[in-house]
User: Fold this.
Amino acid sequence: MRRVAILGGGIAGLTATYELSQIYRQNESLHVALYESSTRLGGIVETVREGEFIIEGGPDAWVSEKPWARELAIELGLEDELIYSNDDQRKTYILIDSILKAMPDGMRMMIPSDLDALDASDLFGDESRQAFYREIGRAQELKTSSPSHDESVSDFVRRHFGNEVLHKVGAPLLSGVFGGDVTQLSVRAVMAPFVALEREHGSLIVGLQARNASTQKLPIFTTLRSGLGTLIDRMVAAIPQEWIHLGISAVSLERNREGWTVHTSAGSDRFDSVLIATPLHIARNLLAPLNPGAVEKMQMEASSAVVVGLGFEDAERLPLPSGFGFLVPAGSNQLLLACTFMDQKFPHRVPAGGRLLRAFFGGNSAERVQCCGNDEVAAIARMELARILGPLPEPRVIVVRRWPLSLPQYTVGHLESMTELDRRIRGLKGLALLGNGYRGVGLPDLIRDARAAARGCV
Ligand SMILES: Cc1cc2nc3c(=O)[nH]c(=O)nc-3n(C[C@H](O)[C@H](O)[C@H](O)COP(=O)(O)OP(=O)(O)OC[C@H]3O[C@@H](n4cnc5c(N)ncnc54)[C@H](O)[C@@H]3O)c2cc1C
Assistant:
């Protein structure tokens, strides 16, 4: 009988447990214990359903290009539930001098693919517009000078397009996803496809145009009609219920000749393999007595996020520009980092005629806001939104979620650190690290790695 412990029941730990449950169906000589310190599974993935409002407390979708979340959803019988972003209405706004200015159509993060749309847009000044055109002409120079080492996102974006593009688009976009500081974030860890475009084409604009011409156009984001919580519910339903231990925290680990002893808040048990899928700072504490050398490579900081969902019954009383939402660059005198117009980004999020806004606070703002009570957090979100969108009607539904230390910062040199971390924990036979501290924060990557790790321990 092979015994496996999984510590942490977020998407990573739960997916690993689900994968083992599928193996168990063919081979019953497997015992698994999933320890989750809270009273629910899913971690940051949480859907709140109020009437016909479907409000995501954490992630709202996955990037369609990466197949692993979609594959899992289909395997769980959720093919009919897959829905896609309304890309024909896709537009993102940037708050500049208190006005929402649209990003040009066809932008992929900070790279324009449609130069006519760029010319028609007033988001960038003449200097940046010229910098975009110059980037195309500099393709050869950028290709030959492509650095052989990692660099920060800000250095990378500045080399291609200059400061204004970094400040108006690059920094707020990356902060929205990673809650981080672009002067510290590793371009190789968080923008790997763009580094590959630079190596191949030099110019990111030329590379993006070539890629667009050669690849099948998928909707940008995929999610589930009834919310991402359904992915969690389906996995939970497929796992033997006696494997699941809610409200039990992993406290420490011991390693001996026979394998592993996991000490939890409810007692101790012995296992052959342990998958640590807790947040990074908890994984660090668990590993510190066993392998201080590995823990040295896990010193990344993590930033917090606060999400406020506001559902309104009467969309006509809250007119919005068409599009998916807006980003707020640093220095705009707002605590808010971004807002998504959920009812415009996806179908099936609100009752007929309804509206759903999702306000997002990250980095330092999240640190400040998360200390407030729910009413106060909601009041801050409403005030900040009203300054930008005009007076808001009374919301019918308010959902506040705090995610402290939820987004580890992949700083320059992150990939090398992860290779070294792998080397250092290789000596700890039967142990694997899962979750968003290591090789990606997005759901598809976490799902892919969790399934592979689960298969690797039986
Ligand atoms: C606000 C927000 C929006 C996001 N949006 C998107 C998006 O749209 N698309 C996307 O792909 N990604 C998105 N992400 C990223 C993605 O949601 C996360 O990276 C992912 O959910 C993390 O999953 P995880 O399993 O690694 O960690 P978690 O979800 O944090 O799970 C870890 C679990 O471990 C448990 N735990 C902690 N300590 C212990 C202990 N001692 N013993 C046992 N259990 C313990 C916790 O309670 C938790 O349930 C978003 C993240 C945030 C914060």
Summary: The chain has a mean pLDDT of 95. The longest helix spans residues 11-26.
